[in-house]
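Morning run. Coffee first, then this:
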Amino acid sequence: MNKKLLKSFFAVIVAVAGVFAFSTSAQAAVIGDVNNDGSVTAADVTAIYDVLLGNDLMFQATADVNNDGSVTAADVTFVYDILLGNVQPSYEKVYILGDVNGNEWNASNGVEMTTQDGKIYTAAITTKETGFSYFSFTTKLANPDTEFNAAWDEIAPYRFGAVPSDDYNFVVTEELLGTEIALTTEEGFQALQMAPGSFNLSLDLENMKLTITGEFAPQPEPAGNWYLVGSFNGWSTTDMGYQFTQSTENPNLYSIFIEPVVGDYWFKIANEDCFTATNFWSGTILSAAVDGYGELSGNLVQGNQGAFCIPESYGCTYLNITIDVENLTYTIETDGHKPDIEPNAADWYLVGNFNGWSTTDMNYPFIQSTTNPNVYSIHVDNVSGDFWFKIAAGTNYSGSFWSGTFLSAAVDGENALSGSLVQGNQGAFCIPASYNCTYLDITINVENMTYSIETDGQP
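And here it is:
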């Protein structure tokens, strides 16, 4: 079929199909939604038309709607039938990605959910026996032979998870069992975080709602004594010199007084069962939801999660920490306070292992381009060892740092010298020592969400 005849054929289809649309909120999950805008419309016919004529190959990967291995006029007919109601849109397979059912995070390996009608998907999962498990969803798995980072890029358009909450991940508590949890395909979706247990998942893919039922596994009752462990004692698994004192009025309250406080003060709270466990960190730990949490009051998370950090910039000389082990809350009395700073939302800073992942060090700012306001760059000298980093928004320094705005890698350890940025506190970039870099010139484009690195080293 020549281009002129093909164009005429498409013109007729677009004209007829323009009055029909099958809408759904499951963006990358509906066959026929070629342009991934959440609906099957005449625009999807146009997208296939552009691919066939070679005008625009952006949607080539999704234009093969009938899944016969090639993009042809038959794909247009297929979408046309969907629009006229002759064919009901069907959903692709849905998989659970994450550390459930004995799996680990792997772009080519997931728990396949089952469905009877292409709308409601179900699966039974078991989370890890200790600590938290994390998972999200995808309608496509990567090829097992694809390189690690490329595999995650391959399935990125097909992934979805929980609508973002105030924390780093969406924590599923006992109160949320049996209720509807909103999901989204939008950038920045969160993984679901769950304690040990066995659960049944019911996913309404058409309305992007998830219902979880089941039971959390009973957790062992902790013994009576609690201890502080942190940067001040080298995260020692034997030092029991920082014991909390139990209140005589309320047996659920424990407190400890710390003086002097020097530098950034990182800590978690360990039960006495940690000191007798085969693995200290598999014992009963009370910690923060995310690393670097620096509020002077808030909630405790049961499990070896993030470490609290009272930054040096708070100007504390002492800390009086009180914990409530029944309500899992804490308060800190001190002579210091969080600095009253309000960085510009357009400011970006480098944070990484080179500055101890500091939540207060603003000495690595990106410089905005004078010719393009979307482009920022930073020069880093004296690069040595593995150089890990993420990019933090200026507003993070005046709030809960790790739940703020980040530009990061899709997966930990991404080491390409150019590529795409992910909005959200995801993986950290790593320029390995084997690259033999002595400097890095990092440039980011916050509109196109890309980065490039110039250096004297190379893979």
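DSSP finds four helices and 33 strands in the chain. Good start to the day.
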